[in-house]
């Protein structure tokens, strides 16, 4: 399979991933604004990815992260987008946290590996734009 060059945009914000108990009520301010925020609730946890500047009291946090947004919207019939991009980062020994929305995918990497990730993606033939 020939890799398809993708266009990604590096978002300017830094993000924190929070883990809270599964029964934590969702605070309205977590959903305000136009920045990337992701909430996922399972039987085991409530995970929140939010801008670093958003104050959320949580027992466990990871970050800071930087986010690469894949240009979209992406057709649901497309195959292997995350596999292709994550393989590129894996080969460069860069851990990632991925999330998907209805329109597109996001790759999050530790902020201190952001430059390495952008370089690896560009070397693999992808376009990385800065906001």
For the structure shown, list the relevant keywords.
131 residues; alpha+beta; VC0802-like; seven-stranded mixed β-sheet; 2 helices
CATH topology grouping: VC0802-like
What is the SS-derived class? alpha+beta
Alpha carbon gyration radius? 15 Å
- How many runs of DSSP E, i.e. beta strands? 7
CATH superfamily: VC0802-like
Tally of contiguous helical segments: 2
CATH architecture: 2-Layer Sandwich
Quickly count the domains. 1
Word description of this protein:
The chain is an alpha+beta fold. The protein has one domain (7-130): VC0802-like, CATH 3.30.2130. 16% of the residues lie in helices and 37% in strands. The protein has two helices and seven strands; from the N terminus they run ββββαββαβ. It has helices at residues 81-91, 114-123; strands at residues 7-20, 38-41, 46-51, 60-70, 97-100, 105-110, 127-130. The protein is globular. It starts with 6 loop residues before the first strand and ends with a strand.
Tell me the layout of helices and strands:
Layout: E1 7-20, E2 38-41, E3 46-51, E4 60-70, H1 81-91, E5 97-100, E6 105-110, H2 114-123, E7 127-130
Parallel strand pairs: 1-7
Antiparallel strand pairs: 1-3, 1-4, 2-3, 4-6, 5-6
Summary?
The protein is α+β, with helices and mostly antiparallel strands and 131 residues long. It contains two helices and seven strands, in the order ββββαββαβ. The chain is globular, with a radius of gyration of 15 Å.
């Amino acid at each position: 399979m020939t890799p398809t060059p993708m266009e990604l945009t590096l978002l300017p914000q830094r993000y924190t991933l929070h883990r809270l108990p599964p029964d934590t009520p969702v605070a309205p301010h977590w959903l305000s604004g136009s920045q990337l925020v992701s909430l996922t609730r399972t039987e085991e946890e409530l995970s929140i990815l939010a801008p670093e500047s958003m104050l959320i009291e949580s027992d466990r946090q990871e970050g800071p992260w930087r986010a690469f947004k894949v240009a979209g919207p992406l057709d649901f019939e497309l195959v292997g987008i995350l596999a292709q991009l994550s393989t590129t980062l894996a080969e460069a020994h860069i851990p990632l946290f991925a999330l998907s929305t209805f329109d597109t995918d996001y790759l999050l990497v530790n902020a201190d590996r952001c430059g390495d990730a952008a370089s690896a993606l560009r070397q693999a033939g992808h376009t990385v734009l800065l906001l």
